[in-house]
Amino acid sequence: MAPVSPPRAAPYISYILTKKLSAQNPVMARGIGIGDEVAITAAVRRRVDEDHVSVSIPSYNFPHSILDRTTKVKRGQQIELVGNVTYVDEEGGKVTIILGPPVTVDIDKVRLVQAYVPPKRKKPLRDMAH
After folding, report:
1. pLDDT tops 50 at residue 49
2. Between residues 50 and 110, the one the model is more confident about
3. Given a cut of 50, is residue 65 above it in pLDDT?
4. Residue 17 Cα distances to 6, 24, 25, 88, angstroms
5. DSSP of 67-106, one letter per residue?
6. What pTM does this model have?
7. Would the pLDDT of 59 be above 80?
8. Counting beta carbons within 10 angstroms of the beta carbon of residue 68, is it exposed (0 to 12), middle (13 to 18) or buried (19 or more)?
9. Which of 83, 99, 102 has its CA nearest to residue 32?
10. 35: phi > 0 → left, psi -120 to 50 → alpha, else beta; which?
11. Cα–chain center distance at 26
12. pLDDT in tens, 88-108
């Protein structure tokens, strides 16, 4: 018996399902992608020493320390951390940001500061004169 091929409507149905899912996806709705500069608001936990401050990042369940020589922040004060996105998990709704070490947080906890714009080429890849 010959194998049965799937009906021709299958790719169209998967396209509709993909469009519907991406419309509900918060990553697509917010427009955050790899290379974008994002900010996350963290709360100061305590001062570790003269130069370092321990902060609590929302939805990141690990301690995080930042270098802070200039300001004298107090416990409970909100501080904004800015970094670049290196990974986007669309199904889980998480993004990985470089804040020194990579930090993975929920997508709804970050704010887009500046979208990534790829560099423009001034010279073509190959000579088109010939």
Report:
1. yes
2. 110
3. yes
4. 17, 11, 12, 20
5. E-SS----TT-EEEEEEEEEEEETTTTEEEEESSSEEEEE
6. 0.68
7. yes
8. middle
9. 83
10. left
11. 12
12. 999 999 999 999 999 999 999
How far apart CA 84 and CA 37 sit, in angstroms, is: 5
Residue 31's region, left for phi above 0, alpha for psi from -120 to 50, else beta, is: left
Query: What is the amino acid identity at position 88?
Result: V
Residue 53 in tokens:
């401050």
**105 with 38: CB under 8 angstroms?**
no
79: its two tokens: 């501080």
Which amino acid, one-letter code, is at 125? Answer: L
Residue carrying structure tokens 């020589």: 69
Joined tokens for residue 77: 């004060």
* Residue 68 pLDDT class (50, 70, 90 cuts): confident
What's the token pair of residue 117?
């714009």
